[in-house]
Design a protein that fits this description.
alpha/beta; six-stranded mixed beta sheet; about 20% helix
Length: about 170
């Protein structure tokens, strides 16, 4: 099976992954890179969580990009504002063309003899079908966040079986 090789492989096209892409292309313009995103769009957490009232718990003057300062006077921004900020940054800097959507990284292994990473991803091809694709890279940059997107953590709540109302998980 053919493998694509990149100097840098970034996992995740959210706030961190887009920032990593920007810094790579400006500080290391001769290096090749790709972003693998398991979902179908840019934004990571800020695209996934769309429930009413979702917002950052950190001020955007600190959380935002140094190369694209947050200019909105509202420092504790809502999710939609942050998502637009991430998407605009990717579009303005040509980072979108480096993203491969529907690529969920399944494993990565370092080869000392080859001095590179071997990365295996599952690519969704449509109608739920998948295929395995392989990459190699000199540097693996994990910007995948800390959420399990398929099923977020649900703690045990005593008495939940007796609750007659609707229980909503923020990831659903």
């Amino acid at each position: 099976m053919a493998q694509d090789h990149f100097d840098v492989l970034i996992v995740g096209a959210g706030l961190s992954g887009i920032g990593a892409g920007y810094h790579l292309q400006t500080k290391c313009p001769g290096k090749s890179y790709v972003l693998l995103e398991g979902r179908d769009c840019i934004g990571g957490t800020w695209d996934l969580f769309r429930y009413p009232g979702v917002r950052s718990d950190s001020d955007m003057f600190t959380l935002g990009y140094s190369f694209k300062p947050w200019t909105d006077p509202k420092a504790i921004a809502d999710g939609a504002q942050i998502l637009n900020y991430v998407r605009d940054t990717a579009a303005e800097n040509g980072i979108e063309k480096h993203i491969r959507f529907h690529h969920r990284v399944k494993r990565a292994a370092w080869s000392t003899s080859a001095a590179r990473w071997a990365v295996e991803a599952e690519r969704i091809t449509g109608e739920g079908a998948t295929e395995t694709v392989r990459f190699t890279c000199n540097f693996l940059f994990m910007c995948s966040g800390y959420y399990k997107y398929e099923a977020g953590y649900t703690p045990e709540f005593p008495g939940v079986a007796d609750f007659a109302g609707r229980i909503v998980h923020p990831q659903k």
